[in-house]
Write a structure and sequence with these properties.
With about 400 residues, the protein is α/β, with parallel strands linked by helices. It contains 13 helices and 16 strands. The protein is about 30% helix and about 20% strand. The strands form 3 sheets. It has a 7-stranded parallel sheet, sandwiched between helices. The protein has a 5-stranded parallel sheet with strand order 2-1-3-4-5, with helices on one face. Strands 14-15-13-16 form a 4-stranded antiparallel sheet, covered by helices on one side. The longest helix has 21 residues, at about 280-300. The protein binds nicotinamide-adenine-dinucleotide and (2R)-2-hydroxypentanedioic acid. One of its GO terms (molecular function) is NAD binding.
Protein backbone atom coordinates (compact mmCIF):
# COMPACT_ATOMS: atom_id res chain seq x y z
CA UNK A 1 0.00 0.00 0.00
CA UNK A 2 1.51 3.35 -1.03
CA UNK A 3 1.30 6.66 0.78
CA UNK A 4 -1.91 8.53 0.05
CA UNK A 5 -1.17 11.81 -1.67
CA UNK A 6 -4.68 13.10 -1.04
CA UNK A 7 -7.75 12.34 1.05
CA UNK A 8 -11.47 12.55 0.33
CA UNK A 9 -13.68 13.65 3.24
CA UNK A 10 -17.44 13.13 2.98
CA UNK A 11 -19.30 15.91 4.83
CA UNK A 12 -22.74 14.80 6.07
CA UNK A 13 -23.83 17.99 7.89
CA UNK A 14 -23.02 21.65 7.62
CA UNK A 15 -19.54 21.99 9.09
CA UNK A 16 -18.15 25.47 9.76
CA UNK A 17 -15.81 26.85 7.11
CA UNK A 18 -13.35 27.56 9.94
CA UNK A 19 -12.78 23.81 10.19
CA UNK A 20 -12.98 22.84 6.53
CA UNK A 21 -10.29 25.43 5.80
CA UNK A 22 -7.90 23.41 7.93
CA UNK A 23 -8.01 20.61 5.39
CA UNK A 24 -5.84 22.15 2.62
CA UNK A 25 -7.40 21.98 -0.83
CA UNK A 26 -4.21 20.63 -2.38
CA UNK A 27 -4.41 17.50 -0.25
CA UNK A 28 -8.07 17.25 0.75
CA UNK A 29 -11.25 16.98 -1.25
CA UNK A 30 -14.37 17.67 0.84
CA UNK A 31 -17.95 17.29 -0.33
CA UNK A 32 -21.43 15.86 0.12
CA UNK A 33 -21.24 13.30 -2.68
CA UNK A 34 -18.00 11.35 -2.54
CA UNK A 35 -18.27 7.66 -3.39
CA UNK A 36 -15.13 6.30 -1.69
CA UNK A 37 -14.27 8.70 1.12
CA UNK A 38 -11.28 8.22 3.41
CA UNK A 39 -13.14 9.91 6.26
CA UNK A 40 -16.54 11.28 7.19
CA UNK A 41 -17.29 14.55 8.96
CA UNK A 42 -20.63 14.62 10.76
CA UNK A 43 -22.66 16.52 13.35
CA UNK A 44 -26.05 15.07 14.24
CA UNK A 45 -26.88 13.07 11.09
CA UNK A 46 -28.04 9.56 12.01
CA UNK A 47 -25.43 7.16 10.62
CA UNK A 48 -26.95 3.99 12.08
CA UNK A 49 -28.79 3.05 8.91
CA UNK A 50 -26.10 4.32 6.56
CA UNK A 51 -23.90 1.91 4.59
CA UNK A 52 -20.50 3.27 5.59
CA UNK A 53 -18.14 2.63 2.65
CA UNK A 54 -15.25 0.20 3.21
CA UNK A 55 -12.84 3.00 2.22
CA UNK A 56 -13.61 4.95 5.42
CA UNK A 57 -10.64 5.13 7.81
CA UNK A 58 -12.09 7.51 10.41
CA UNK A 59 -15.20 9.41 11.46
CA UNK A 60 -15.00 12.96 12.84
CA UNK A 61 -17.93 14.17 14.94
CA UNK A 62 -17.98 17.97 15.26
CA UNK A 63 -19.58 17.87 18.70
CA UNK A 64 -19.75 15.79 21.87
CA UNK A 65 -22.47 13.12 21.50
CA UNK A 66 -21.72 10.09 19.33
CA UNK A 67 -25.02 8.23 19.79
CA UNK A 68 -25.79 8.93 16.09
CA UNK A 69 -22.75 6.89 15.03
CA UNK A 70 -22.52 3.05 15.02
CA UNK A 71 -19.37 2.98 17.15
CA UNK A 72 -19.51 -0.79 17.91
CA UNK A 73 -19.70 -1.71 14.23
CA UNK A 74 -16.80 0.64 13.49
CA UNK A 75 -14.74 -0.99 16.27
CA UNK A 76 -14.89 -4.25 14.33
CA UNK A 77 -13.37 -2.41 11.36
CA UNK A 78 -10.71 -0.67 13.47
CA UNK A 79 -12.14 2.75 12.57
CA UNK A 80 -11.70 5.51 15.18
CA UNK A 81 -14.59 7.88 15.94
CA UNK A 82 -13.30 11.30 16.96
CA UNK A 83 -15.33 13.90 18.85
CA UNK A 84 -14.55 17.37 20.23
CA UNK A 85 -14.69 17.31 24.04
CA UNK A 86 -15.52 20.70 25.51
CA UNK A 87 -15.55 22.59 22.19
CA UNK A 88 -19.25 23.48 22.51
CA UNK A 89 -19.60 23.26 26.31
CA UNK A 90 -19.84 27.00 26.92
CA UNK A 91 -22.64 27.34 24.37
CA UNK A 92 -24.64 24.62 26.14
CA UNK A 93 -23.94 26.14 29.56
CA UNK A 94 -25.33 29.49 28.44
CA UNK A 95 -28.51 27.89 27.10
CA UNK A 96 -28.96 25.93 30.33
CA UNK A 97 -28.74 29.22 32.25
CA UNK A 98 -31.31 30.73 29.87
CA UNK A 99 -33.57 27.68 30.39
CA UNK A 100 -33.33 27.93 34.17
CA UNK A 101 -34.21 31.63 34.07
CA UNK A 102 -37.07 31.06 31.62
CA UNK A 103 -38.54 28.40 33.90
CA UNK A 104 -37.98 30.36 37.13
CA UNK A 105 -39.49 33.61 35.79
CA UNK A 106 -42.03 32.10 33.35
CA UNK A 107 -40.49 34.24 30.61
CA UNK A 108 -41.94 32.37 27.62
CA UNK A 109 -45.52 32.71 28.84
CA UNK A 110 -44.93 36.33 29.93
CA UNK A 111 -43.56 37.26 26.53
CA UNK A 112 -46.50 35.54 24.85
CA UNK A 113 -48.89 37.57 27.07
CA UNK A 114 -47.26 40.85 26.00
CA UNK A 115 -47.17 39.83 22.32
CA UNK A 116 -50.93 39.39 22.23
CA UNK A 117 -51.75 42.82 23.78
CA UNK A 118 -53.33 45.07 21.18
CA UNK A 119 -51.88 48.44 22.29
CA UNK A 120 -55.30 50.02 22.73
CA UNK A 121 -56.10 52.52 25.50
CA UNK A 122 -55.53 51.06 28.93
CA UNK A 123 -52.36 49.25 27.92
CA UNK A 124 -50.57 50.13 31.18
CA UNK A 125 -53.47 48.79 33.22
CA UNK A 126 -53.63 45.61 31.13
CA UNK A 127 -49.89 45.05 31.69
CA UNK A 128 -50.02 45.59 35.44
CA UNK A 129 -53.15 43.44 35.84
CA UNK A 130 -51.89 40.74 33.49
CA UNK A 131 -48.44 40.25 35.00
CA UNK A 132 -49.75 38.64 38.17
CA UNK A 133 -49.53 35.00 36.97
CA UNK A 134 -45.88 35.48 36.02
CA UNK A 135 -44.40 36.04 39.47
CA UNK A 136 -41.53 33.58 39.69
CA UNK A 137 -38.68 32.61 41.96
CA UNK A 138 -35.02 33.60 42.11
CA UNK A 139 -32.20 31.19 41.33
CA UNK A 140 -29.98 32.47 44.16
CA UNK A 141 -30.15 30.12 47.16
CA UNK A 142 -31.97 27.39 45.21
CA UNK A 143 -30.28 24.01 44.88
CA UNK A 144 -29.30 22.87 41.40
CA UNK A 145 -28.62 19.17 40.87
CA UNK A 146 -26.15 18.41 38.06
CA UNK A 147 -26.14 14.82 36.79
CA UNK A 148 -23.01 14.24 34.68
CA UNK A 149 -19.99 16.36 35.57
CA UNK A 150 -18.09 16.33 32.29
CA UNK A 151 -17.28 19.29 30.08
CA UNK A 152 -20.81 20.76 30.12
CA UNK A 153 -21.86 19.74 33.64
CA UNK A 154 -18.75 21.30 35.23
CA UNK A 155 -19.32 24.65 33.47
CA UNK A 156 -22.99 24.65 34.50
CA UNK A 157 -22.06 23.83 38.12
CA UNK A 158 -19.50 26.64 38.16
CA UNK A 159 -21.93 29.20 36.67
CA UNK A 160 -24.65 28.19 39.13
CA UNK A 161 -22.32 28.71 42.09
CA UNK A 162 -21.51 32.18 40.71
CA UNK A 163 -25.27 32.91 40.59
CA UNK A 164 -25.47 32.16 44.30
CA UNK A 165 -27.04 28.71 43.93
CA UNK A 166 -26.19 25.61 45.92
CA UNK A 167 -24.98 22.80 43.66
CA UNK A 168 -25.28 19.07 44.20
CA UNK A 169 -23.33 17.05 41.62
CA UNK A 170 -23.40 13.38 40.66
CA UNK A 171 -21.01 11.55 38.35
CA UNK A 172 -19.71 8.09 39.31
CA UNK A 173 -16.95 8.31 36.67
CA UNK A 174 -15.86 11.91 37.09
CA UNK A 175 -12.34 12.47 35.75
CA UNK A 176 -9.59 13.91 37.92
CA UNK A 177 -9.39 16.98 35.64
CA UNK A 178 -13.14 17.57 35.92
CA UNK A 179 -13.05 17.22 39.69
CA UNK A 180 -10.20 19.76 39.89
CA UNK A 181 -12.18 22.21 37.71
CA UNK A 182 -15.19 22.23 40.03
CA UNK A 183 -15.64 24.97 42.64
CA UNK A 184 -15.12 23.61 46.15
CA UNK A 185 -18.71 24.58 47.05
CA UNK A 186 -20.15 21.84 44.80
CA UNK A 187 -21.46 19.06 47.01
CA UNK A 188 -21.08 15.44 46.01
CA UNK A 189 -24.32 13.47 45.73
CA UNK A 190 -24.38 9.73 46.43
CA UNK A 191 -26.80 8.79 43.64
CA UNK A 192 -29.24 10.06 41.04
CA UNK A 193 -31.98 9.62 43.67
CA UNK A 194 -30.03 11.79 46.11
CA UNK A 195 -29.95 14.59 43.51
CA UNK A 196 -33.63 14.30 42.60
CA UNK A 197 -34.71 14.36 46.26
CA UNK A 198 -32.61 17.33 47.26
CA UNK A 199 -32.53 19.75 44.34
CA UNK A 200 -35.25 22.08 43.10
CA UNK A 201 -33.74 22.25 39.62
CA UNK A 202 -32.06 19.19 38.08
CA UNK A 203 -30.02 19.35 34.88
CA UNK A 204 -28.84 16.32 32.87
CA UNK A 205 -25.42 16.26 31.16
CA UNK A 206 -24.71 12.59 30.44
CA UNK A 207 -24.20 10.86 27.08
CA UNK A 208 -27.05 8.72 25.73
CA UNK A 209 -25.89 5.11 26.09
CA UNK A 210 -27.83 2.02 27.19
CA UNK A 211 -27.00 2.72 30.86
CA UNK A 212 -28.41 6.26 30.70
CA UNK A 213 -31.55 5.53 28.64
CA UNK A 214 -34.52 6.69 30.77
CA UNK A 215 -32.12 7.63 33.56
CA UNK A 216 -34.97 9.85 34.74
CA UNK A 217 -38.03 7.59 34.66
CA UNK A 218 -41.47 7.54 36.29
CA UNK A 219 -40.19 6.16 39.63
CA UNK A 220 -37.37 8.66 39.87
CA UNK A 221 -39.62 11.58 38.88
CA UNK A 222 -41.71 10.84 42.00
CA UNK A 223 -38.68 11.86 44.07
CA UNK A 224 -38.68 15.40 42.67
CA UNK A 225 -40.41 18.36 44.27
CA UNK A 226 -43.82 19.26 42.88
CA UNK A 227 -42.45 22.68 41.87
CA UNK A 228 -39.22 21.15 40.60
CA UNK A 229 -37.67 21.92 37.20
CA UNK A 230 -36.02 19.22 35.08
CA UNK A 231 -33.64 20.32 32.33
CA UNK A 232 -32.55 17.93 29.58
CA UNK A 233 -29.75 19.15 27.33
CA UNK A 234 -28.29 15.63 27.05
CA UNK A 235 -30.37 13.77 24.49
CA UNK A 236 -33.92 12.62 23.84
CA UNK A 237 -34.18 9.30 25.67
CA UNK A 238 -32.14 10.24 28.76
CA UNK A 239 -35.43 11.31 30.34
CA UNK A 240 -38.59 9.27 29.73
CA UNK A 241 -40.63 12.07 28.15
CA UNK A 242 -43.98 10.24 28.52
CA UNK A 243 -43.31 9.93 32.27
CA UNK A 244 -42.27 13.59 32.42
CA UNK A 245 -45.55 14.67 30.79
CA UNK A 246 -47.50 12.46 33.23
CA UNK A 247 -45.67 14.10 36.16
CA UNK A 248 -46.37 17.60 34.78
CA UNK A 249 -50.05 16.77 34.22
CA UNK A 250 -50.38 15.36 37.75
CA UNK A 251 -48.69 18.51 39.16
CA UNK A 252 -45.84 16.39 40.55
CA UNK A 253 -43.31 18.41 38.52
CA UNK A 254 -43.26 22.15 37.83
CA UNK A 255 -41.53 22.49 34.43
CA UNK A 256 -39.47 20.61 31.86
CA UNK A 257 -36.83 22.43 29.82
CA UNK A 258 -35.69 20.35 26.90
CA UNK A 259 -33.46 20.72 23.82
CA UNK A 260 -35.07 17.74 22.02
CA UNK A 261 -38.75 18.36 21.22
CA UNK A 262 -40.91 15.40 20.21
CA UNK A 263 -44.63 14.70 19.91
CA UNK A 264 -44.95 13.76 23.61
CA UNK A 265 -43.91 17.20 24.84
CA UNK A 266 -44.82 19.52 21.96
CA UNK A 267 -47.04 22.47 23.01
CA UNK A 268 -47.29 21.30 26.63
CA UNK A 269 -47.81 24.49 28.70
CA UNK A 270 -45.17 23.52 31.26
CA UNK A 271 -42.56 22.52 28.69
CA UNK A 272 -39.96 24.97 27.43
CA UNK A 273 -38.45 23.40 24.33
CA UNK A 274 -35.64 24.44 22.01
CA UNK A 275 -34.82 22.92 18.60
CA UNK A 276 -31.53 21.24 19.61
CA UNK A 277 -29.88 24.64 19.97
CA UNK A 278 -27.36 23.86 22.72
CA UNK A 279 -24.31 23.87 20.47
CA UNK A 280 -25.65 26.25 17.84
CA UNK A 281 -23.51 29.31 18.36
CA UNK A 282 -21.00 30.65 15.87
CA UNK A 283 -18.23 30.14 18.41
CA UNK A 284 -19.12 26.54 19.24
CA UNK A 285 -19.59 25.55 15.60
CA UNK A 286 -16.19 27.00 14.74
CA UNK A 287 -14.46 25.45 17.77
CA UNK A 288 -15.89 22.01 17.02
CA UNK A 289 -15.08 22.18 13.31
CA UNK A 290 -11.49 23.31 13.87
CA UNK A 291 -10.86 20.70 16.56
CA UNK A 292 -12.30 17.79 14.60
CA UNK A 293 -10.55 18.78 11.37
CA UNK A 294 -7.18 18.98 13.14
CA UNK A 295 -7.70 15.59 14.80
CA UNK A 296 -8.81 13.97 11.56
CA UNK A 297 -5.85 15.39 9.66
CA UNK A 298 -3.36 14.24 12.29
CA UNK A 299 -4.83 10.75 12.06
CA UNK A 300 -4.99 10.55 8.27
CA UNK A 301 -1.48 11.89 7.75
CA UNK A 302 0.36 10.60 10.84
CA UNK A 303 -1.86 7.95 12.43
CA UNK A 304 -2.05 9.91 15.70
CA UNK A 305 -5.23 9.45 17.74
CA UNK A 306 -6.51 12.31 19.91
CA UNK A 307 -10.04 12.32 21.33
CA UNK A 308 -11.44 9.16 19.79
CA UNK A 309 -14.34 7.74 21.79
CA UNK A 310 -13.39 4.15 20.94
CA UNK A 311 -9.56 4.20 20.96
CA UNK A 312 -6.85 5.20 23.43
CA UNK A 313 -4.96 8.47 23.00
CA UNK A 314 -1.91 7.51 20.92
CA UNK A 315 0.44 10.16 19.56
CA UNK A 316 4.09 9.89 18.61
CA UNK A 317 6.32 12.58 17.11
CA UNK A 318 7.79 11.51 13.78
CA UNK A 319 11.46 10.63 13.94
CA UNK A 320 11.66 8.47 10.82
CA UNK A 321 10.04 8.67 7.40
CA UNK A 322 8.32 5.29 7.57
CA UNK A 323 5.39 4.69 9.91
CA UNK A 324 2.95 1.79 10.25
CA UNK A 325 -0.32 2.27 12.20
CA UNK A 326 -2.16 -0.82 13.41
CA UNK A 327 -5.58 -1.10 15.05
CA UNK A 328 -6.18 -4.42 16.74
CA UNK A 329 -8.27 -6.22 19.33
CA UNK A 330 -6.89 -5.95 22.84
CA UNK A 331 -5.76 -9.61 23.14
CA UNK A 332 -2.40 -11.17 24.17
CA UNK A 333 0.67 -11.43 21.93
CA UNK A 334 -0.35 -8.89 19.27
CA UNK A 335 2.79 -6.77 19.72
CA UNK A 336 4.98 -9.90 19.65
CA UNK A 337 3.48 -11.01 16.35
CA UNK A 338 3.69 -7.54 14.80
CA UNK A 339 7.33 -7.00 15.78
CA UNK A 340 8.24 -10.53 14.65
CA UNK A 341 6.74 -9.84 11.20
CA UNK A 342 8.82 -6.66 10.99
CA UNK A 343 12.02 -8.30 12.24
CA UNK A 344 11.64 -11.18 9.77
CA UNK A 345 11.46 -8.61 6.98
CA UNK A 346 14.71 -7.06 8.22
CA UNK A 347 13.05 -3.87 9.48
CA UNK A 348 14.63 -2.02 12.41
CA UNK A 349 12.08 -0.49 14.79
CA UNK A 350 13.06 3.10 15.52
CA UNK A 351 10.22 4.03 17.86
CA UNK A 352 7.00 2.41 18.92
CA UNK A 353 3.95 3.12 21.05
CA UNK A 354 1.14 0.76 21.93
CA UNK A 355 -1.91 1.49 24.07
CA UNK A 356 -5.19 -0.19 24.78
CA UNK A 357 -8.65 0.92 25.88
CA UNK A 358 -11.32 -1.64 26.59
CA UNK A 359 -11.44 -4.10 23.71
CA UNK A 360 -9.39 -1.91 21.38
CA UNK A 361 -5.64 -1.44 21.02
CA UNK A 362 -3.57 0.73 18.73
CA UNK A 363 0.09 0.67 17.77
CA UNK A 364 2.31 3.15 15.95
CA UNK A 365 5.65 1.82 14.73
CA UNK A 366 8.33 3.99 13.09
CA UNK A 367 10.96 1.99 11.24
CA UNK A 368 14.32 2.96 9.73
CA UNK A 369 13.60 1.95 6.13
CA UNK A 370 10.75 1.63 3.66
CA UNK A 371 8.18 -1.12 4.31
CA UNK A 372 7.42 -3.64 1.59
CA UNK A 373 3.68 -4.19 0.95
CA UNK A 374 4.16 -7.91 1.73
CA UNK A 375 5.02 -7.02 5.37
CA UNK A 376 1.80 -5.06 5.67
CA UNK A 377 -0.10 -8.04 4.27
CA UNK A 378 1.56 -10.37 6.83
CA UNK A 379 0.54 -8.03 9.67
CA UNK A 380 -2.96 -7.66 8.24
CA UNK A 381 -3.34 -11.46 8.28
CA UNK A 382 -2.60 -11.76 12.04
CA UNK A 383 -5.72 -12.86 13.89
CA UNK A 384 -7.03 -9.84 15.83
CA UNK A 385 -5.56 -7.18 13.55
CA UNK A 386 -8.41 -4.91 12.40
CA UNK A 387 -6.73 -2.27 10.24
CA UNK A 388 -3.21 -1.55 9.00
CA UNK A 389 -2.00 1.67 7.39
CA UNK A 390 1.37 2.61 5.94
CA UNK A 391 2.20 6.30 6.43
CA UNK A 392 5.54 7.19 4.84
CA UNK A 393 6.43 10.87 4.76
CA UNK A 394 5.81 11.94 1.18
N1 LIG B 1 -27.90 20.05 23.40
C1 LIG B 1 -26.77 20.07 22.72
O1 LIG B 1 -26.67 20.69 21.67
C2 LIG B 1 -25.58 19.32 23.26
C3 LIG B 1 -24.31 19.86 23.10
C4 LIG B 1 -23.23 19.18 23.68
C5 LIG B 1 -23.45 17.98 24.35
N2 LIG B 1 -24.70 17.48 24.42
C6 LIG B 1 -24.99 16.22 25.11
O2 LIG B 1 -24.48 16.30 26.41
C7 LIG B 1 -23.70 15.17 26.70
C8 LIG B 1 -22.60 15.57 27.66
O3 LIG B 1 -21.69 16.46 27.00
P1 LIG B 1 -20.25 16.75 27.63
O4 LIG B 1 -19.53 17.56 26.61
O5 LIG B 1 -20.38 17.26 29.01
O6 LIG B 1 -19.66 15.27 27.67
P2 LIG B 1 -18.57 14.67 28.65
O7 LIG B 1 -18.17 13.37 28.06
O8 LIG B 1 -17.50 15.68 28.91
O9 LIG B 1 -19.36 14.41 30.01
C9 LIG B 1 -20.29 13.40 30.22
C10 LIG B 1 -20.18 13.01 31.68
O10 LIG B 1 -21.30 12.16 31.99
C11 LIG B 1 -20.84 11.24 32.96
N3 LIG B 1 -21.77 10.12 33.07
C12 LIG B 1 -21.91 9.07 32.23
N4 LIG B 1 -22.89 8.25 32.70
C13 LIG B 1 -23.36 8.82 33.84
C14 LIG B 1 -24.37 8.45 34.77
N5 LIG B 1 -25.10 7.34 34.62
N6 LIG B 1 -24.60 9.26 35.84
C15 LIG B 1 -23.87 10.40 36.01
N7 LIG B 1 -22.89 10.78 35.16
C16 LIG B 1 -22.64 10.00 34.08
C17 LIG B 1 -19.45 10.86 32.47
O11 LIG B 1 -18.67 10.27 33.50
C18 LIG B 1 -18.92 12.20 32.01
O12 LIG B 1 -18.20 12.85 33.04
C19 LIG B 1 -23.18 14.69 25.33
O13 LIG B 1 -22.91 13.30 25.31
C20 LIG B 1 -24.33 15.04 24.41
O14 LIG B 1 -25.24 13.97 24.32
C21 LIG B 1 -25.78 18.13 23.91
O1 LIG C 1 -23.98 19.52 16.08
C1 LIG C 1 -24.93 20.03 16.70
O2 LIG C 1 -25.60 20.95 16.27
C2 LIG C 1 -25.29 19.52 18.08
C3 LIG C 1 -24.17 18.85 18.80
C4 LIG C 1 -24.47 18.43 20.19
O3 LIG C 1 -25.68 17.78 20.31
C5 LIG C 1 -23.34 17.58 20.73
O4 LIG C 1 -23.57 16.45 21.15
O5 LIG C 1 -22.22 18.11 20.74
Amino acid sequence: MADKASFAVLVLNQISKAGLERLPAGRYLTGKDLAEPDAILVRSADMHSMAIPASVLAIGRAGAGTNNIPVQALNARGVPVFNTPGANANAVKELVLAGMLMAARRLGAAQHFVAQLDGADGLDKAIEEGKKPFAGFELANQTLGVIGLGKVGCLVADAAIKLGMHVLGYDPDITVDAAWSLPSQVQRAASVEDVLRNAQLVTLHVPLVEATRHLVNADRLRLMRADGVLLNFSREGVADDAAVVAALDARRLGAYVCDFPNRAILRHPQVIAFPHLGASTREAEENCARMVADQLRDFLEHGNIRNAVNFPQVTMARESNWRVAIANSNVPNMLGQISTAMAQAGLNIHNMVNKSRGDMAYTLVDVDSAVDPSVLETIRAIDGVLAVRYLPVA
